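Re: the pair you flagged

First of the two:
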Amino acid sequence: MHSFRLLLLLPSLLLAHLLSAQSSAPDLVLQGTVNGSLNKTYIDVPFQVPAGVHRLSVDFSYTARDQKTALDLGIADPSRFRGNSGGNKSHFTIAESDATPSYLPGPIPPGEWKLLLSVPNIHPAVIAAYRAEIRFNSEIEDSSFTTAALATGERWYRGDLHMHTAHSDCSCASQSGRRVPCPVFFTAQSAAQRGLDFIAITDHNAMSQYEAMRELQPYFDKLLLIPGREMTTFWGHFNIFGTTQYIDYRVQPGHDINAVLRDVRAHGAIASINHADAPGGEICMGCVWEPQTPVDLSLLTGVEVINGGRFLLSSADVWDRSLAQGVHLTAIGGSDNHDGPAAPPDSTVIGVPATVVEADELSVPAILDGIRRGRVFVDLTGSRDRILDLDARLASADSASPPAKMGDEIHAAAGATIDFQVHIANCQRSSVHLFLDGHETPALVPLASTLGTETLPFTWKADGTRHWLRAEVRDSNNSLVLISSPIYISPAVQ
């Protein structure tokens, strides 16, 4: 006879880095055996789901495959069928906003669920053992559509952190040439063709795009799809990255923008102000950043310094005002594409501008960590190879000690000399302009580059107060090409 036993195990460990689903402890384990007498039968394996679960994930395995045994997999909740993947998947996840293909997204009701096992083939003398590991509220799959990094190794990864699809207000040409809501696939395909490493699809206050993104991620195995959302309020827009869970975006009395941002952080996600200096009023309702209550800037991680829009829109002044308050916000860019891949002549191009992030692997946690650390520059041209980096060390420091990097803080006493280096690549016939506290100064003259790939040194004498210093690269026409994140200068620690 068929038998199973239900094992209650410790809750899943909180993971700081992206790991395979199998590496975290399951909440439940269902185990059993199937023998030859059960050939061509159906087996229901019940298990209990507690209240408060928003995501359920299953990993399924069985023995005797080498003896031609086949076990197929499905699942039902207390009231309805939720899907069947046959023998083509050993892992699936179901949540309110998204589910693995073959399965239906939706709320996870508490009560008795059932694994639906089918036995299309098992030989008479064979006994096969199966194991189903069940995890509740997987943080991995709440923040990412893949359980493994798409690439490993520390390098600069290039992406676009602002774009739209049919799930909000993106349109593209249909087969007959009409403008229709543009499917997510075409946005991802366009990004892949442009050589991007990651994108965040940020439809306005929407979560329905996550279902398509979970389906597409296995196909786009060189393009990381980051869960994103443009939180569109009456008083400004901001993107969030790194969660698929619902967050109430409605800024209104009793629920100000700080409440929304605290909820974003509680879900492990990050937030960045969008197109802060966009036109407002009826031209672009809610687009300009003008919160009606003071914003706790420490709840933010970034500012979209360059927005693609219909033209490249700079919000560097908002960024500089935030930095002047001592809040280390990272500069990012986004195309804000609303036209898909085959766009009208005056539309934006996916990947222009690009946000370039240094990370140790291509995963959602690693990319978001790079943004948090300020290891980011913005490429206004969306090139595939331009690089801008900045480092600094005290002239008196041991040369073997590591320098402060872009995004880091260096402590310097008044009168101390700081040796800086700007590293650029593939920026021929360009100049590097240096900005102290948001402004060019006669003390920091532009640095000329003819080779385009080189290290350009300069020095600056500290005055014992706080500053931030960043770099911009301009081409031979004096057009802005690259913007760095700053190095922060603070008084020496006493």
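Second of the two:
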Amino acid sequence: MTFSRGRKNKLRNSEKKAEIAIIGGTGLEEFVKDAETIRLGTPYGVSPQIFTTMLHGRKVAFLPRHGVHHAIPPHKINFRANIYALYSLGVKRILATNAVGAINPKFKPADLAVPHDLIDFTKFRKHTFYDDAPVTHIDFSQPYCPQIRHLLIENAKKLYPHVQTRAVIVCTEGPRFETPAEIEMFRRLGCDVVGMTSSPEAVLARELEMCYATICYVSNMAAGIQKELSTKEVHTIAEQVMPILQKILIETVRVLPQKRDCPCAKALTQARFGNK
């Protein structure tokens, strides 16, 4: 389906627009308390439940990428529908969270990390809104919004002692964990952490000129660095760090300036061939 920037859902009066979105997984239920719930149809499918609420006087949308009950595995997430639904709500900025495994031995379980770059090793995901003319190549030299990254790092360091301020994150298809040989390959490529949900989320947001950055929590050491991996370990670390992560996100929403002083808002200016 051809994407058109002018094609937005017409929201009912009850579906008030939001300027900021938070995308996360299980453990961020604090954001859905006393929240309105909506689902939006998009050209790419129906979004999961989106919760809208007020934080520090700003309308914020919370989208659980795995669904409310964590029922959607990473390789089945409809990233295009998720991002387009937030775009339809008027969202200009996205703060995301990801659970990751540590490849760099300097990173430890329960550390927080704010990635500055990513490598995409997914295989079957839809990575773009631009399948047809005009041919569009967005600049992805800075995959994450520098303005949001700065504020996430600043607030994280105020609230938590173990924050990695730079990280290359590699995204794999899932749902299985990686093999030790794959992790060794990623290490040699310069990757610090590995996860299953960071791409194409960041790419799609940039294609719609939305600011996007993520703060990750290290749930385990990656395969081959520790003996075995389990979802129980991921859940245990999540319970430990989520209260702090919530505070960081809420404070970042509070201090985000109204003006977007970053290149994200002009991502399409020189991205297209032709005059369209």
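Confidence is low (pLDDT under 50) at residues 1-10.

-B.
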